[in-house]
Amino acid sequence: MGNKKYYQYGTLLIVCVLVGAVIALLMKNVNAFDTGSKSLQELQNQIIEYQRKNEDLNNRNARLYDYIRELERDEGESYLLVMEEREKFATFAGLRTVKNDGVVITLSPIGDYKIQDALVRQFTNELSALGAQAISINNERKVTTTEVRTSRDNIMINGIAFARSEPFEIKAIIDPSKIDSFVVPYLQSVSESIKKQLGEDLVAITVRHEKGIIIPALSEDRIGYAMDLLQPVD
Amino acid sequence: MKDTIWKRIIAVFAALLVGIGIASVVKDLTTMAVGEDVSADILQAREELAFEEANFRSQRLLNDRLEARKKLLLHSLSEQGVMSDIIAEHGKYAMLAGLTDVKGPGITIALNDKAGYDPLADPIESVIHDSTINYVINLLWSGGARAISFNDVRLTAVSEINCVGPTILAYGVRQMPPYVISAIGPVDELLDVVQGDSYLARLSQPEVGIRISISTDSEMILPSFLKSRDYSHFMDLLETP
User: Fold this and answer.
1) Residue A2: which pLDDT band, with cuts at 50, 70 and 90?
2) B136 or B1: whose pLDDT is higher?
3) Which fold has domain A97-217?
4) Cβ–Cβ gap A147/B141 under 8 Å
5) Which long-range contacts (CB under 8 A, 24 or more apart) does A160-168 make?
6) Containing structural domain, residue B3
7) Which of A145, A159, B34, B223 is 20 to 30 A from residue B60's alpha carbon, by CA?
8) What is the pLDDT of residue A203?
């Protein structure tokens, strides 16, 4: 009887020691992986970021160097160079009409529903995040200063009012190689989730791939041209 | 009888502690070698990062010098009456595109996650998302902002701000809180739209807890987009019709 009791105590002690050991090992493993791998991963991310920035700067410096050499030579080439760069700046700013393959998203209100500015913004933000290089909403070019804001029954875009009871058409030029494989399916999934949130019978959303989309330049009378409060830094 | 129960409980705890102790010693001995490997990797990564940072500083310095030289040459050509109209337009378009440093009056909004954010207890809005940043930016444009930067990255016609997991990226550049949005424009109007916005007011309520601070400046400088990225990557798909 006495031996049996000691045997039970002994077994219990061994089990407890083993359980304690397992707990300690688990905790140590979790901590070690957390701190070690996280900081290494963080450093590696930073290195990759700097490498990309350096590559960017290196290319830009090489181009600038050539540009300056041409300006210094002043053999007539500089005129073309400045003109070419001026056009690039204008295109990047959204002041030139552009063309390429892209996607067209149409938001059509159903019944009395009125399109919300947040819905238009959600799609333009998604398109920007997907790498769109030019965007227009109802043929208003999205430029640096473009706002998408509800004002009563309208949505203001570049200071122009568009009725919320009418369809909104968003066009974007985007990497053609990704349109069918990723962009359209992704935007369709976004549409589905929006329709689930809002209700199927309030808004119809279509997303389609379109070849040779033309996105107009910003009209010269728009607020986007205002530079009255900006001064160049010397 | 009570005595025996207490003895058993104490024995169980003692055994657990002994187990934890033994495991710690064994683990320390066996992982010492692995730990050294991880430290060596970290050390190497730090050295590599320091090298890339130094490279970046020198490239940036060279870029500043080349940009200044280019500006001077264009100015001198313009002064001589050579291509003065084209050079003036060149400067104007660069400014509208966000490709020059600009200065002017404006406001700064700093946004930070709720202090001591607890994912189990706090609402998801207690952490700043890309949608929050995009919302504030749109608000500032609607208030008449002429130029905006986000964490010192100047915004352009297609402002690429998105989330990858918990990280917010601006044109592919990782951003960390606090998120600072600076806008040049009509200060009073900008203040009105920000201070009068109900969504921002809700975010700053204690239950959501987003920390928002707003300040104004009679003259602030916003950097050119070129200080963050090369613009040519963001327009290589655009063709002239």
Assistant:
1) low
2) B136
3) Alpha-Beta Plaits (3.30.70)
4) yes
5) A160/A222, A162/A137, A162/A138, A164/A109, A164/A114, A164/A115, A164/A116, A165/A109, A165/A112, A165/A114, A165/A115, A166/A109, A166/A115, A167/A106, A167/A107, A167/A108, A167/A109, A167/A115, A168/A106, A168/A107, A168/A115, A168/A120, A168/A137, A168/A138
6) 1-97
7) A145
8) 93
